[in-house]
Specification:
Belongs to the DapA family. The protein has 313 residues and is an alpha/beta fold. Helices cover 48% and strands 11% of the residues.
Length: 313
Amino acid sequence: MTSAPLAARLSIPSGPLFFPVTAYGPDGAVDLDAYRLHVRRGVEAGAAAVFACCGTGEFHALTPEEFETCVRAAVEATGGRVPVVAGAGYGTALAVRYARLAEDAGADGLLAMPPYLVKAGQEGLLRHYRELAAATLLPVIVYQRDNAVLTPATVVELARTEGIVGLKDGYGDLDLMQRTVSAVRSAGVEDFLYFNGLPTAELTQPAYRGLGVTLYSSAVFCFVPEIALACHTALRTGDEATVRRLVDGFYRPFVDLRDKGQGYAVSLVKAGVRLRGLDVGEVRPPLHEPAGDHLKQLAQLIERGQALLEEGM
């Protein structure tokens, strides 16, 4: 693991947070060579951290053995240059198992995915994340979305829990997020991290920045890192003209395309990686590949995004 604490390394992001896809070979097995190359290219392109085997990395589709192997490969590919955060999820017992596998593989932290299937109350969610944090030395970021939406009071309790360092918001309720940030601040917790975790987070990041949330996940970084990096730099420096140009010309059309298919937040990104020349295979069921005409639209959109960068030079 890297020597500096995860929260300190993420507090001032030097680049986008990279959520690599998981590569599969023609036989459907994990392709570690392609995966390492994908991760290494992302780090070299300017990623501030690697979030391995999370949503974009098809955490749901990996066996525990594959998960540990991929996290270890990500750690090897980064070579300590940036932190590696691994996913952990399902019920409490399995989440703990994944956490310990990630720790053994050399990860620097965990992204706690929502519990599987059940819609639990706040008391149960709080206990779940506390038990996960207590079971490992790795710092934990809690991922709020779907069946794991937290009240401000619950987040305050999480922020006071040793080992829990942040909240990633994939729910998108800005009113709730503002009240959460305010409640944690009023409770005297100043170093808690917040992340915009919505799909294609660049589209909503201008709004999240208004809440003081500067960290966000970037799946687009997987296949057009130059566009994601330009957007990140523009957001960080207050270059609103560039942000608007990229949002209007690339990110909004990409989201429109993404919304044309279930699961496209993953499968369309993976298709984009293949279009850029790295064969990472197809998604595993129950996800499915994008339709042919959608792939054509994606290729055109990539070209359009690159042209927007040239226009801004």
